[in-house]
Amino acid sequence: MKLSFRQVHLDFHTSEAIPDIGYKFSKQQFQKALQIGHISSITVFSKCHHGWAYHPSKANEMHPNLSFDLLSQQIEAAHEIGVKTPVYLSAGLDEKMAVRNPQWLIRTKDETPAWSKSFIEPGYHLMCFNTPYLDYLVAQVEEVVSNYDADGIFLDITNIMPCYCSYCRKALKDAGKDILIPEDVKWLAERTYANYTKRIREAVDKIKPGLPVFHNGGHIRRGRRDLAAMDTHLELESLPTGGWGYDHFPLSAAYARTLGMEFLGMTGKFHLSWGEFGGYKHPNALRYEAALNIANGSKCSVGDQLHPSGFMDEATYGLIGAAYSEVEEKEAWCDDVTAVADIAVFSNEAADNMNKKEQSGKTGKSDTGAARILLEGKYLFNVVDHFEDLSKYKLIILPDNIRISKELKEKLDAFVKNGGKILATGESGLSMDSDEFLYDFGVKCEGANAYNPDYFVPDFELKSLGNAAFVMYSEGMKVTLDGGDELGKRENTYFNRTVEHFCSHQHTPCSGEYGGPGMAQGKDGIYIAWKVFDDYATTGGLVLKEMVCHAIDKLLGNNKTLRTSLPAQGVTTLMEQKMQKRYVNHLLYASPVKRGNNVEIIEDVIPVYNVEVSLKLPNKDITRVYLAPQMENLDYTMQDGVIKYTVPKLENHQMIVLDY
Q1: DSSP state, residue 148
Q2: CB atoms within 10 A of CB 173
Q3: Can you give the pLDDT at residue 359?
Q4: Strand partners for 565
Q5: Mean pLDDT of 436-450
Q6: Could you tell me the residue range of the domain that residue 410 belongs to?
Q7: For residue 629, cis peptide bond before it (omega within 30 degrees of 0)
Q8: Cβ neighbours around 434 below 10 Å, total
Q9: pTM for this structure?
Q10: Among 559, 584, 610, which residue terminates a domain?
Q11: What pLDDT, on a 0 to 100 scale, did the predictor assign at position 38?
């Protein structure tokens, strides 16, 4: 069953303290809202975080203030107009049962519950799947699949969670494990989650084999393909104003599209995040977010929350419809696509998962900084793990913290042997066991650099800045030249900032003392001595982007697939529809601004004119270039495998189709 392009995720977390649940529900009004919103699929509720069912139930209890089967009426109304209805059940949260059976809760080391720490504050409490609660939940899933025409099951708040409840303590003891050993507690958490997903799959398949199921943990973990395989598809929760930001979705999608699974991007109609009644984002923001989804090979989902009365907010569906009417026109060029990518970014999160290391804050920053630079530099890339076939890429980027394990070395050895190049930064490229480079970057590592911050002086011209000594805020490694070409040098400060030695407001100025290479090239690629991607995610320094882009351009040479004049805040991707024998080049432009307390807002969509694009597409005989969905032919030139065209006007999102 294929995913729909235009989905709404209709939250309905409704307190028992609210009367007259669903009294304003109307099939006609529900259908009208879906039609206004151009909706093709809507996730409707069986059970909410409060623990109540929204239909008659033997496995659960119907909301005490609901007098009819709301779920069946929503499904019937949607199906009548051709709209799919996946069904939602809250898995990890069930406040009704948390109060009645507190022994079923996930407990932290000090015995406090997870999420809300007590029962004297408003909030939910996480349930443990290693307790009788799992049987209770599985019965609810079986009931929904048996009694309702669900088009899928969406289970929320599911994750691998270490737990110290009495059931988990006993399970560890019975298995000969020790509650005091963190690795043993993690082992049980992994086993508990795998058992939960297995039980759900078995419950669904014995009634409706193959029915789609997704377990939502708020993030698709890079490098954990085993977890992704427990789902039939992926839903990338990524509300830009809800804490994810505009950096998250392109990064997450760049990984998800390497997994061979359908996926959708889940944003929200809210000004802020989930649970917000009466909050609306600007229509242009939702137009951009939907376009960003389809440009990255994704389907779309927009989060909404139904009022307890059951009345669909038509202002919300007018807002969604402004975006989805455009998506509807573009679907033909966005289904069954494969991303064209020159570069593979080896994810820090994937490396940590591969090496069974704890996730760190720096891990997220390095991946984020790499994706941000590549987006702004208009490079075509995927984010990969150690399962990915690296032979399809021209360049591998190892951002900041990727020390080389035996498993990763086998993959990279084959890649380099076949002519591939590596860009490594910070600790990347060093052995897992020592400060020795395992690839030829033309330098030898002497350990961590003594000065932080220090300075970089490039030996090349930057695109936007004159030559200078540029401050490097991130951690660095000290290297000496070892047969390579120095592309820029490190210069030391007079001293590190301490209580006895400090100068000016922030850090000590450059002393001009040579500190070794800061950037060098060897046979296998280029090495930059600082954790520049972490630094870019943190400080956004222009020199960081320009030194990385210089390294990438030097390594790719004439093998770069796409070049464009699109400004820095623009986004471009290139997708191939092999069955239709065509490429689709997506161009997007919008500029988020900060409002309030670091909330990123898109309001004005500013047109960009005469965007130049060149694509190097060897062995392809291009027969037509046109704008979609307008179906207007576009003039182009073709020479030596390079096709060039100019897009007269880009307003938010434009697709350029190249038939071959």
Answers
A1: S
A2: 11
A3: 59
A4: none
A5: 96
A6: 343-559
A7: yes
A8: 10
A9: 0.95
A10: 559
A11: 98
Task: Determine contact, residues 368/249, Cβ cutoff 8 Å.
Answer: no
**Single-letter code of the amino acid located at 176:** G
Residue 1 lies in a domain: no
Is the predicted pLDDT of residue 18 greater than 70, yes or no?
A: yes
Same domain, 296 and 371: no
Is 292 in contact with 265 (CB distance < 8 Å)? yes
How many whole angstroms separate alpha carbon 348 and alpha carbon 358?
A: 11
CA–CA separation, 41 vs 8, rounded Å?
6
| Nearest CA-CA partner of 300 in 254, 268, 265 | 265
Angle, vertex CA 52, rays to CA 203 and CA 168, nearest 5: 60
Q: Is the pLDDT of residue 531 over 90?
A: yes
- Find the distance separating the first CA and the last CA of the chain, reported in whole Å: 29
E strands, 402-449, where?
Answer: 421-425, 443-448
539 with 583, same domain: the answer is: no
Identify residue 553 by its one-letter amino acid code.
D
Assigned domain for 478 exists: yes
In angstroms, rounded to a whole number, what is the distance separating the alpha carbons of residues 177 and 438? Answer: 37
Which pLDDT belongs to residue 509? 80
Is the pLDDT at 472 greater than 60? The verdict is: yes
Answer with the one of 304, 335, 366 that is the final residue of a domain: 335
Residue 453, preceding peptide bond in cis (omega within 30° of 0): yes
Cα(124)–Cα(296) distance, rounded to whole angstroms?
34
Of the listed ranges 23-37, 39-53, 342-356, the one predicted with least confidence: 342-356
- We report the CATH number of the domain holding residue 14 as 3.20.20.80
Burial 525-537 (b: 16+ CB within 10 A, else e): bbbbbbbbbbbbb
Is there a single domain that holds both residue 547 and residue 569? no
Q: What is the DSSP string of 225-286?
A: HHHHTTSSSEEEE--GGGTTHHHHHHHHHHHHTTTT--EEEEEESSSSSTT-TT----HHHH
- Cβ atoms of 476 and 426 within 8 Å: the answer is yes
Non-local CB neighbours of 244 within 8 Å, separated by 6+ positions = 237, 238
Q: Which helix (H) or strand (E) holds 585?
A: strand 582-589
> How many CB atoms sit inside 10 A of residue 202's CB?
11
Residue 176 CA to residue 163 CA, distance in Å, equals 17
Amino acid residing at 528: I
Residue spans of alpha helices (H) in 41-181: 70-80, 95-100, 133-147, 166-174
pLDDT of 619-649, one tens digit each? 779 999 999 999 999 999 999 889 999 999 9
Look at 69-78, 90-99, 505-514 and tell me which has the smallest mean pLDDT.
505-514
Other beta carbons less than 10 A from residue 151's beta carbon:
21
Q: How far is CA 499 from CA 453, 495, 496, 502, 509, in A?
A: 16, 12, 10, 7, 16
Query: Most distant CA pair in the chain: distance in Å?
Result: 79
